Amino acid sequence: MLIYDFDFPALEATLKEWNEPAYRAKQIWRGLYAHLYSSTDEFTNLPKSLREKIENEFAFAPFSVRTFLDSSDNSTHKTLFELPDGNLIEAVLMKYGDPADSPSPLRPSPAGRGDGGEGKLRRTLCISTQAGCAMGCVFCATGQMGFKRHLTSGEIVAQVMHYARMLKQQNESVTNIVFMGMGEPFHNYNNMMSAIERLNDADGYKFGARRMTISTVGLVPQIRRFADEGRQVNLAISLHAADNDERLAIMPITKKYKVEEIIEACKYYVEKTHRRVTFEWALINGVNDTPETAQKLAARLKGLLCHVNAIPLNPTQGYEGQATNRQCAQIFRETLERAGIPCTIRMRRGIDINAGCGQLAGAESQ
Ligand code: SAH
Ligand code: SF4
Are both 30 and 100 inside the same structural domain? Predict the structure, then answer.
């Protein structure tokens, strides 16, 4: 079994079964998550016999690196991982705040995901929660490839550990984690939350919940459950359309959950948690980037503690839609802001390495 799939009580129970002293579980936990060890050899504080046993009983490598790519400006790194069953998943590291990373006119302030803060060096990791995705959004490369399987909590955590080790070699660390890679996190709810708890653990990796963001297509019961659980993790909703008919044309999940139900669930979330919701909006030329659409959206979001994160569409092979242009994006933002809805236009990152949303895995599996 993959060692990252254990939560602490399960690891403790296993060590107890092996008649090991209680403190061994903590040593292993700290080795994995505080020291970022990736093989049994590194656990020099454990007796050799125990190391051998761990080596025989646990797997340390959840995947192999199939492809690793850097964008031409060196700001975006993408890794395509191959799971033991042959499925491919991807994780992307985005670097913000480096001297060469000057603000663009479309991005007046460094786009805020999580609470990394302005002007600071940010190392934002975008990771996958499923291989493929069952939600079938037409503009999304992951949606176009269909659902393969859920990732285990350990496979989610291990993507973070991979990058944490890489950054540690450069005396850096992950500052923000967004669950916006392949898959729908709320479709894999329990594994997702276990992964968050493991990353957050005070005796382990200690990654602050407020620096994590879950992005969902808008699964209403899970939004409400998430609200009830009162976690500090940020919530982003991929809305992309303000009307049900328009949304249905690009996001089949609209058959199940109407826009108004999603907004209601978000209101509930804000009431429960007092936290701001982010709405993700991929600006598609002539489809959802007009001032009229912005007005409809503003009407929908009125009175809700929220923020709109708009990004020009990343064109994909399986969808004829094109990215908005700079001017439309600007007008879209201004229209929202005039109506009292804060909006940021984010630049697309890593386009030259297919770092947008499932594109690399899509390309390699064709
Ligand atoms: N399934 C989740 C998280 C993964 S997708 C969700 O849908 O929220 C991460 C984000 O990328 C979502 O906001 C999604 O709508 C967006 N996205 C997908 N394909 C895109 C594309 N081609 N261009 C721009 N954004 C895209
Ligand atoms: Fe799945 Fe999100 Fe892509 Fe939709 S946008 S298909 S929910 S990964």
Answer: no
Beta strands 88-96 and 122-126, pairing class: antiparallel
Buried b (16+ CB within 10 A) or exposed e, 63-98: beebbebebeeebbbbbbbbbeeebbbbbbbbbbee
Q: Can you state the angle between helices 220-229 and 189-200, rounded to 10 degrees?
A: 30
Q: Residue 71 sits in a domain of what CATH number?
A: 3.20.20.70
- Report helix angle 291-301 to 326-338, nearest 10: 30
What CATH code is carried by the domain that includes residue 9? Answer: 1.10.150.530
pTM score, whole prediction: 0.92
Query: Active-site residue among 12, 20, 90, 184?
Result: 90
The least confident of 202-206, 226-230, 356-360 is 356-360
Q: How confident is the model at residue 274 (pLDDT cuts 50, 70, 90)?
A: very high
- Residues touching ligand 1 (Cβ under 6 Å) are 133, 139-140, 180, 184, 215-217, 238, 280, 282, 311, 313-314, 316, 356-357
Q: Is 32 in the pocket of ligand 2 (CB under 6 A)?
A: no
CB burial of 135-145 (b: ≥16 within 10 Å; e: otherwise) equals bbbebbbbbbb
Closest listed residue to residue 294, CA positions, set 254, 248, 240: 240
Q: Which domain holds residue 87?
A: 64-353
In tens, the pLDDT along 91-129 reads 999 998 887 655 443 433 333 333 344 457 899 999 999
- Amino acid 110: pLDDT: 38
